[in-house]
Amino acid sequence: MIGFRTLAVPGPTNMPFEVRRAMEVPLEDHRAPDFPDFTLPLFRDIKTIFQTQTGHVFIFAGSGTGGWEAAITNTLSSGDKVLGASFGQFSSLWVAMCRRFKLDVVNCDSAWGTGVPISEYQTILENDKNHEIKAVLVCHNETATGVTSNVAEVRNILDRLDHPAMLFVDGVSSIGSIDFRMDEWGVDVAVSGSQKGFMMPTGLSLVGVSQKALDAAATSTLPNGYFDFQDMLNMNEQGYFPFTPAATLLRGLRASIDMLNDEGLTNVFERHRHLANGVRAAVDAWGLKNCAVAPKWYSDTVTAIVVPEDINANDVIKAAYHNYGVSLGGGLGEVAGKVFRIGHLGWLNETMVLQALGGVEMAMLDAGIRFQPGAGVGAAIQHYAHFNKPLTMAAE
User: Are 136 and 151 within one domain?
Assistant: First the structure.
């Protein structure tokens, strides 16, 4: 096809030219005497994105799934009890991984389109008088359904009950895009990946770890090797890694961190909210529904859109890709064929979102969805151009 394809999936996201240029370097010696001149400031500055001063952020070559495994195997032992919730594909997969490691999982099976069930968590933790639950899992942003959960509320429950369980957070599609405060929320392990808010290729698993989690690693009996926190910490203190790092990606990460800090995290979060509101305005104008069942769950990084019952969402996705060069996210698990997803995170502005929305409208028409052409794009334009102020039309 002629022209650029439009990448509107919730990861990987669009890559800025600054990140590309940063990685266009000759391969380097990761054991060189001056390598720590680059890595030590990197280890320090990535903490600003996680909003932690007291924690340490490990950079593994891997993906968010590897970060899940690192959280489990470093801090827990076989048979330990953990509390989790399944309300989408990725929250469910993390729970499934816990079971594969022979953990005793107390799982809240919740409706897809909702988030972490706060009241259920509170009841379960209140009844855990002997503090058998060692870790509480929170999927901050469920990418499959476009749902964001309130991490701070879970921390408040633990604090009110004086419960010592560690707080684990999947922030793969939130950190770097949605407000995330590791220290303030008392998060013990936070997992992210390079291909979403960090605006990079897939390949880095970013794992923020508190001192409490590092202390827990001293008594954990689950086997690990590659993801060992203490091995990483020992080598990171010297500016090196216990394995061959993805040095080229580290150069891109340096550029990504600089870009996020230059914009200012508050501005980054506000931009994502602004872009998301435009997409949500488009969904309303099309007469369709958000998979997230209530505004309190709406994600600012991805919107999952429910198609009419007589339509297969995959037909929209195929039409968008083949006819118009637009990549949309597909439905996963329980919502397969029922939703298509628009990612609106990372290196993105209003006109880039409008380009995606225009492609979506043409694809929906091809798939047989009835709506007023231009309605969604027009609603988004009105939001973006006037920050939700009604357009004033000149008198004829």
Answer: yes
